[in-house]
């Protein structure tokens, strides 16, 4: 009896048949898995962003499925999406995009509707925002989004604006094991115009990395760079060149640390050139539980000093502090540099009701110096802002130069500033309820109250 041998050709045909059978049956099997796992992944992503997902409709097909859902951050911030989910394991359309065609699924979606309050409500129109989500078998996802060029009239605080945006593109990588996001967003240009003036920005780019921290907080960092920022009105003009803002957020245990570094290579304002500008701001050892509770509430800005202490004091109970260091501004008018440090020691939730206990628990160090011409310009800006907010108090008969000189003389006479060698200086140190201002002992509570009662905030 002879045994039939399988030739290489027949083996190849069998393998091809099995592969074709696998490719035909796999989309249906993957569709079942996607229906089970995808809503859960959406919910995990939403919760890491302090939101929730409500599934409106899900229809499963053989090669693809469709889903509609709402992403809810609050009743005033709700977004509805429609998506088509192409089942894996093979999607040849990814080859032209430079990606591997072997994926679990590809999601192609668009923004259907929004329920958003605020000035952006009329701008977020239906079906303009589109995106693609390439899902891997391990739960990772590559999200690419695009918003075409757009012009829209918006209104904010009774002021009408015309806004024009160049196309916006974004790419984000979501890693399921770490629940982290990393990516970048690019905005070539933006223009905003009203009857009072216009604002424009060019070549803005944002890169970021975020991951879920303890509680409801996010950790990570971000870098924003803008090549050109300009504001122009009939009275003034401000131009910033090469603005760079770097933000950091780290959590260790229940302590939260925030950091910001701001750099501007060059600026133009009031017909003067400034720059470079450097500033580093740190908020360290904040109480993470208090911050989480505050963010979870529908908070409004406090309307008085006592409410401000009551609202923000819990963040500082555990020895937190604020530090502004390496602040430096170089200009044609002169230089300005300074630093600021505020820390807490021994505060508790009752301190906001006792001003003396509050002052005894705060440590403050403030120092700065500015050349005469630059300080005069800073005081002029303060006076101009105050007169713009309260025009009934403006005295047009007195020249601005005279107002600036009178204010600076008053600040020196009351020892808020010292003047020597064409430079203004200020040094304030406070600890355990004792304070020294420019080497002279002062009553910190009386000094604070005198500033609160000042009508202009400039002596």
For the sheet with most strands, the description reads:
22 strands, antiparallel
Count up the helices: 7
What's the multimeric state?
A: single chain
Beta-strand content bin: over 45%
Helix content: 10-25%
Radius of gyration: 30 Å
Summing up helix and strand content along with how strands pair, one would put the structural category as alpha+beta
Catalogue the unreliable spans.
301-309, 455-459
Mean pLDDT: 79
Distance between the termini: 115 Å
Tell how many strands the DSSP assignment holds. 22
Q: How would you sum up the global shape?
A: elongated
Question: What order do the SSEs take from the amino end to the carboxyl end, as H and E?
Answer: HEEEEEEEEEEEEEEEHHEEHEHHEEEEH
List the helices and strands and how they pair.
Elements: H1 8-48, E1 52-60, E2 64-74, E3 77-87, E4 105-116, E5 130-135, E6 141-147, E7 150-156, E8 159-165, E9 168-175, E10 180-193, E11 197-212, E12 218-233, E13 237-252, E14 255-269, E15 272-287, H2 288-296, H3 305-312, E16 321-331, E17 334-344, H4 355-360, E18 362-371, H5 372-389, H6 400-413, E19 418-420, E20 423-431, E21 434-437, E22 440-442, H7 444-452
